Amino acid sequence: MKSWNGLKRWGGWLAAAITAVGLGLPPASALASGGVAPPKQDWTFSGVFGRFDEASLKRGAQVAVEVCMSCHSIKYIKFDHLRSFGFSEAEVKAMAESQGKTKKDKMISGMDPQAAKDSFGTIPPDLSLMTKARKGYEDYTYGILTGYLNDKEKEMVEKIFADGNVLDPEIKEAAEALHLGHDLEKAKKSLERIHRGDNFNKYFPGNFLAMPQPISAGQVTFADGKESSLEQMAKDVTSFLAWAAEPTAMERKSAGVKVIAYLVLLTIMLYAVKRRVWSRIPH
Amino acid sequence: MFKSIMEWVDARLPISDLIKSQATEYPTPKNLNYWWNFGSLALFVLIIQLATGIFLVMHYKPDAALAFDSVEHIMRDVNWGWLLRYLHANGATFFFVVVYIHILRGMYYGSYRSPREILWWIGIIIFFLLMGTAFMGYVLPWGQMSYWGAAVITNLMSAVPLVGEDLVVWVWGGFAVGDPTLNRFFSLHYLLPFVVFGAVFVHLWALHAVHSNNPDGIDIDEHKDSLPFHPYFTVKDLYGVGVFLIIYCGFVFFAPNYFAEPDNYIEANPMQTPAHIVPEWYFLPFYAILRSIDFLGSFSKLAGVLAMVGAIAILFVLPWLDRSPARSFRYRPLSRQLFWLFIIDCFILGWVGYNPADATVFGGMPIVFVGRAATLVYFGYFFLLWLITAFDIEKPKPTPTSI
Amino acid sequence: MHIEQEESRRDFLILATSAVGLVGVGGAAWPFIRSMSPSADVLAQATTEVDLSAIQEGQMITVPWQGKPVFVLHRTAEQIAQAKNVTMSELRDPQDDKDRVRKPEWLVVLAICTHLGCVPQPIGTGEYGGFLCPCHGTHYDTSGRIRKGPAPKNLEAPPHEFKDDRTLIIGKVLA
Question: Hey, is B197 helix, strand or coil?
Answer without folding.
Answer: helix
